[in-house]
Amino acid sequence: MKLNVAIAQMDVVFGDPDANFSKLEDFVKQAAEQSADIVIFPEMWNTGYDLTHLTTIADEAGQQTKSRLAELAKQYQLTIHGGSVATNRAGKFYNTTYVFGPSGQLLADYDKVHLFGLMNEDAYLTPGDHGDQFEVAGVQAASVICYDVRFPEWLRTLSLHDSRLLIVPSEWPTPRLTQWHRLLAARAIENQSFVVGVNRVGTDPDNAFGGQSVVYNPFGDELIRLDDQEQLATVVIDIAETTAARGFMPVFSDRRPDLYE
Ligand SMILES: NC(=O)CCC(=O)C(=O)O
């Protein structure tokens, strides 16, 4: 089973959801032109980290994002992994992932679980309380958001449901890009899965984001690494490699959960 994965390495217009929706639409169109099965966006692409204005700019109940992603997925007949967006639900703000399949159906709905204090998320956002898995063209996938990737036990928990593809939308600042690559590669090796990290580019008032979106195979080899420019790129991944990795070294069945915790 092969999947054509499109990475939408987007520059986010700070605090301007309308401008960012229009960029998203261009990227989805490009992904469809390149026959992608799935297109993946970065973290908080609707607003960036404009956390002090969430009352006016966060997506109310995620409605605008959900209806637009559903329409676009259906129109272009592909899966859209909507990175994450700032949402406002019952007066609380969340950093939320929505994934829509080609029939316009909602496949996943996930709020970032580990809030990132260095970017003030803990002061403004409410953490999620559950994970979510979904299927892309017959492939089991799971998704976490940026800082979540530093918690191997969380990605392992999600991987125990036979995920073969782990997706990590991010706004990861340039000074820690070396750690970004090492963490993503480690998660790929230990979970014997493909890992797709989609970072934004550009700057906001506090940080610079150097892109370097990347795909690692289940052996931790890099299949593609983008530079620091806004762009869409595609890469074909062969899910049979996850079966080969798991057959060669049975990490999942060698686990000793009786000793953990
Ligand atoms: N947006 C984020 O969660 C950033 C995480 C990050 O930069 C890190 O080093 O972890």
From TrEMBL:
Any matching Pfam family: CN_hydrolase
Matches recorded under PROSITE patterns: CN_HYDROLASE (PS50263)
Domain CN hydrolase, residue spans: 3-239
Keywords: Acyltransferase, Lipoprotein, Transferase
MF-aspect GO terms: acyltransferase activity
Family membership noted in the UniProt record: Belongs to the carbon-nitrogen hydrolase superfamily. NIT1/NIT2 family.
PANTHER family xref list: DEAMINATED GLUTATHIONE AMIDASE, NITRILASE-RELATED
Name of this chain's protein: Nitrilase cyanide hydratase and apolipoprotein N-acyltransferase
